[in-house]
Description:
- This protein has 13 helices and eight strands.
- It has helices at 8-18, 27-35, 45-48, 61-67, 71-74, 85-97, 101-104, 106-120, 138-141, 151-163, 202-217, 235-238, 247-259, and strands at residues 2-4, 40-44, 54-58, 133-137, 168-170, 190-194, 225-229, 240-243.
Amino acid sequence: MVLDGSLISENAYFIKLREKEYKNKSIQEIITEIMSFADLFYLSARKSSCVRGGFIATNNKEFYEEIKPWLPVYEGFLTYGGMSTKEIEAMAVGLREMTDISVAGSAAEQVKYFAEKLIENGIPVVTPPGGLACHVDAMMFLPHISQSQYPAGALAAAIYIVSGVRSMERGTISMDRDKDGNEVFSDLELARLAVPRRVYTMSHIEYVVDRIHWLYRHRDLVKGLKFVEEPPVLRFFFGKLEPIDNWGEKLGEAFKKEFGAQ
């Protein structure tokens, strides 16, 4: 079994909160039990220990020997994998810290607060909230935009215009077309507002809630998007889109009229 441990401490935190047989277990004990089932374990250090990089781990000598020759090709030498000594040292500290319940639960509790505040203002969000991000439901936020015009992408763009906050489209733009060039519509159209661990204050969250609430009241100004440059694969990373009927400028003008130009 291959285990992605990029948010393993947050998952352990939720297990401790939600599963009664684990309420007296420490975060470290829960993580250790989760990892005991894995043959291969990989982790993004950016999420779990707040540094660039990560690692792959295994207790299987055969797997280790198969992976080892490929490290210099794609990452770096075996002992550092392309990471600096400073980053490796910081990652080691972060891995220890993430087993502290106050650290493991920090992002999860902020995301919960974020989601609850949006819900109080009538904003459609995915519940229950998780440990990485608050997800706004774009099809409910912008029901007048068809999936062929990428509502999640339009919502992400609109949020940036009115707040300067970058969210992430998780919808049809993130899909590639099928072999015949037809759109593959996503089951969900979401704008993901990630909350990195120990980065933001409650004031940051309140600011974003205020701006999204304003946008929700003016959501009729938001229209769809269309591709002007669309590569055959990975269009989410390399494609370029533009607003239909120049709605971005109109939204910006409405925002300036109410809040001022600065």
